Amino acid sequence: MSIWQWVVASAVSRWGDDPWARGSWSLIGRGGTPRHRTDLGTPIGSRLRIAGEATHATRAAMTHGAYEEGVSAGAWAAGQGHARVAVIGAGIAGLAAARTLTDRGVWTRVLEARDRVGGRTAPAQVGGFGFDLGANWLQQFHDNILARLAERLDLPMVPTDFTDPLVLGTPYEIPDGLEDDLRARLAAASEQAGIADVLDGWLADPGRWTPDDIRRFVDAEIVMDSGAPLSWLSARHGFEPGVGEGDRWIVGGYRRLVDHLADGLDIHLNRPVHHIRTGPQRVTLDEDLRVDAVIVTAPVGVLTGDAITFDPPLPATHRTALQRLGMGRVEKVILRCDRRFWPVHPAGYYRVHGPGENCVSEWLDATAADGTPTLVGLFAGPWLDDLWAGPDDQVAARAAAVFAEAAGGFPGTGPAH
């Protein structure tokens, strides 16, 4: 019996192929600094502002960072005295901006390219229960405004201890002091250096560490959290904080928060915006909607492409910021099983290193959602090109086989076919 025969329902993400995301979350590349995040979020005159997780200097790549930036942008537009404001994107930042404006009595319309709200919080019904194919955790929990909202809504939440995963395959422990050494080396690098530059020099002279210790730590803590090539990722600023600070996931998924934020807003789905023309008196969107101001919450991956054009072009500071920022790719798989085939671990979190360099996956035991044995796997690294090829059921089967092989020795497990 293959492990795939134990899977009764599955779902996979496609963030690398999503034209309205073009990746999972924003990152700082070579030559970039957190200042480029704030530059991108600086208002352009009095009628245009970009906002989202990418514009937050200290909470980037996190939903509460997106929410805070959306609230700030909405307050800015209302403070300018605008009577009609458009918000592009119905993700967390867009909903926060629209909610802020609407609560202040400003006419607000949200234009969303997808057929759903939530942006990179992507709900999925898998085997009769709600899970997330996008953002999953409430991070920095004790300083997270969305966590406070979830508490007020009395949403059930489950903590995840990222610091104590069970390593499947070949277990190991990261030696004390290695992370401090890595951070010191990264901090001493030049602004133009990539993490790979620092890593190559370190592996050539590893000192008291083994090369395997260094590689495993980098894969687990940087590759897994970024999903970006280490040659591109900024040595000084690419290893950003956030994960592992009291993180909790919402039983039933982020959709329960998103629906609350979207309630009562004027949201137009399947309405991409391709052209923004800002004049002295108004902003025109695609020649058919005229407003006083616009808040753009499209991800960096969309802004750096040709999906949206600006007339006049974005200022040099904003264009430079977009050149220094980019998107990582981390994909997710959800497996609902008819039996639990994996070992019980108190933290409910597992790590699997792939056969190739920088190939890694981590897995959450989400059985607590409703009692049905469920695994949520996150994958990063070069093996995504092969693992994520083909139809969803094939992707899910390959991902299940990765976990089953690493958890070898359990009756009935084996490669999926």
From TrEMBL:
It comes from the Bacteria. Residues 9-73, 92-405 form the Amine oxidase domain. Pfam families: Amino_oxidase (PF01593). This is FAD-dependent oxidoreductase. It comes from Actinoplanes hulinensis.
